[in-house]
Each structure stands twice: as C-alpha cells, then as structure tokens.
From TrEMBL:
Organism, as annotated: Amycolatopsis bartoniae
Name by which UniProt lists this protein: Ketopantoate reductase
Amino acid sequence: MGIMSGYHLQLAGAEVTFLVRPQRAEKLSRPQLLYSYDDVSVQPFSGYRVLSDVTEVGDRAYDYIIVTLDGASARSAEGTAMLSDLGNAVRDTSAVVIIGGIGLGLRRHCLDTLGIDEERVISGALSLLAHQVASANLPIHPPTDPALLAQADLAYRTLPTGSFTVEDRFPAVATRFKALYDACSVSHCDIVDHRQFPAQVAIVFPVFAACELMGWPPAAQFNDHKDTWNLAVDAVREVVSLDEYRPAGQPTGSEFLTHMMAAAEEQALPLDVNAFNAFHHGGKVAQQDLELLQDHVSAGEREGKPMVALRQLIAELTAFRQQAA
C-alpha cells in the first residue's frame, strides 16, 4: 500500500516520505521497479525520502500521512507507541492522517492514540491489486510479459474504482485529497460514504475464508461447494448485523456476493485474482484475516449475538489450516 500510494502521489506532484522499519529502509535505498498489468510496462519509482525513526517526522511539514499498519499491528505495543509518537510529531500541524489498515474499530483506536483533532483522521484503502513479484508465483495471462514482470519488485493492476479510496466522513478533507491524487493522471481516488465504507471492507473476509476452504475457485463454481458457500453467506449477514456496520444497509445475499467476486475476476485480468487472493489472503495476511474474523465474533458476544455461522466458519478454517500444515 505504501509503495503504490507513494508512487501515484509522486506522479501527482507530491513529495513523498516513507517511515519504515530499519531493515525496510535498506530495501528502499534503490529505485523500486513497478510492473503495470494495465499497460505491460515497468517504471522505476525513486526520488522519495526514507526515515526509520518516527522522531524524525517532525523536521518538516506534511499535508497527508497514510498509516498502512494492519489492525493487529496498530494495536500492538510497537504500533501503539509509533502512533503516539506520530501524533506528538504532527499535533501542532494541519496534517491529515489517513488510516489505511483494516480492523474493527481501527479508526477510533488510531484517533485516540494519535491524540489529534477528529476531523484530521479519516479511513482509506488501496483500491488496486498489488503484489511482490519474487514471492508470488501467479499464473500468466496475456498480454502479461513474463520477462518484464520478472524484472520488477512489485506488480499492480488498477481496477475501475481507481487506485485509492477514502471515506467522506469529512467531505472537504476527502475532496482535497482526491484532487491531489487525481492529478497523477493515470488513475484516481474514489470517495465513498463513510457509513458504507467499513461494511464494504468487512464483508469480503468471510468470503475469503470460504474461498480458502473451497480451494480458491472461480465464483461460477461457488455453488459446487454449497455447504461452505452458504455458511459464508450466513457469516457475512452476521458480520453486517454488528453495531459498527448495521447503519450501512450493506447487501449480503448469495447472488450479490457471487456477482461481486465474479466482477473482480473479470476486472482484474490479466492479473489472476483468485491466485492473487490465494497468495495474499491465503498466505501473506492469512493470520491477520483470521484474527479479524475472531474480532467480529468477540464483538458479537459483547452485543449478545451468537455469531453461529461465523464461529463454524472459523473452526472449519482453523482445522483446514492445521491439516495443511
């Protein structure tokens, strides 16, 4: 998320700084090569500044800070300390913080930890698909150029929603960020209803869990695994019934969810989205995804909701992973 967001913002004319762990700083010391599935090209990304100590952030002013920690990392001792130090560094500035991670109640946790004015903290998400090239052995579909792809550090595919999404909790803030992002001219930022945004993100995680159990099939084959798929649909309904998501009125039926996944398959080509999800959600962030589902169960318990389907889905996924290990 950081690399791709920084790349597009730099194309838009912004100066970009990365705050990363020391070992990551070494990797960013050279230009990052980015392969685009959109136009079969490799572009270098350089000219950014790299910091590995949060205390260095305060040496200059920033318009926007995108926090890419996932929910678990943001709540860890290290993540909480970093957010607190970041808040101290920018408290007396006008910098807007965009929370790009995923987690139940994550914006509130970050807002409380940062200790800055509420209208300076909004949620956002990366709307394109991106993966490391060296560690992701995905199927090649035309017109992908395997030789060019192999040269790159990261590969990405832009979807119709654009490259980035922000919520409209504070419309003027979202509009200003969109204007900056859209100046990159190769993609755009989408603004979504803040009442819809959390639910739109949350519903995909029971679906990913079911897809892992089903072997990451295309959406057209979901009904070949009726018990698992129906369990996922019921789990999605339970998730959106939680207080955090209920105002959204998010569609949850089997037909809607199947269409959502089928549309993603078509729009992502030539990137194979099912193989991408297997690599990303079935591997790279598998544990974070499982923890998010467990957080939803805990939230249901607090609200007096049994979350029967989600509990069963988690149990089946846990047993499946144990057998595969």
